[in-house]
Automatic annotation (TrEMBL):
Catalytic reaction(s) noted: protoporphyrinogen IX + 3 A = protoporphyrin IX + 3 AH2
Taxonomic path: Bacteria, Pseudomonadati, Pseudomonadota, Gammaproteobacteria, Pseudomonadales
Localization per record: Cell membrane
Residues bound to heme: H9, K84
Keyword Nucleotide-binding included in the entry's annotation: no
Protein name: Protoporphyrinogen IX oxidase
Subunit field text: Homodimer.
Gene source species: Halopseudomonas yangmingensis
Length: 140
């Protein structure tokens, strides 16, 4: 059972990250777009990605992760798990910051340029590298 939960945990993590990488990329193109038709199309793409994939994936990934912890409470005594959970909290914060920018774009109130979103897009990359090393290598 535990391994089944882990398999679906990893699947949900992959789909969550696909959206975490793509949504800020859409913000880059949206911030560069100048015509009304493109802007309205980006709004729809952003909303569907966030509501249809990103948030459900986050809920499933976190839910299955917590379910594994309930089955294996020993992991909570490990330093790597504390570090991982700290990064996951930061990632959930990033997720909701994306939701905030999405609402600004939806109301035509975005004030940031494409260069900002290009840098913003890099943050989840760092979290992904750190968390995968923590859970696989379990260095401490
Ligand atoms: C609250 C959120 C999360 C919790 C409670 C959680 C918990 C867990 C637990 C208990 C395991 C099993 C560890 C083992 O059996 O060795 C696991 C595995 C894993 N988690 Fe998470 N996780 C969460 C979020 C994430 C996120 C955001 C990522 C990716 C960045 C991630 C990536 C992984 C990977 C790749 C594994 C497989 C490790 C392996 O056995 O090879 N998890 N997680």
């Amino acid at each position: 059972m535990y391994l089944w939960i882990k398999a679906f945990h990893i699947i949900a993590v992959v789909t969550w990250f696909a959206a975490l990488f793509y949504l800020p990329r859409l913000f880059v193109y949206h911030a560069m777009s100048e015509d009304r038709v493109s802007q309205e199309r980006f709004k729809i793409m952003e909303r569907k990605l966030y509501r249809g994939i990103m948030t459900p994936s986050m809920v499933v990934a976190v839910g299955l992760g917590l379910w594994m912890l309930q089955q294996m409470p020993f992991w909570m005594s490990q330093g790597w798990m504390h570090a991982k959970l700290t990064l996951v909290v930061a990632l959930i914060g990033y997720h909701f910051v994306c939701g905030h920018y999405l609402r600004l774009f939806a109301n035509d109130r975005n004030t940031r340029g494409h260069v900002f979103y290009r840098w913003f897009n890099e943050a989840p990359v760092l979290v992904l590298i750190a968390v995968v090393i923590l859970v696989v290598v379990k260095p401490f």
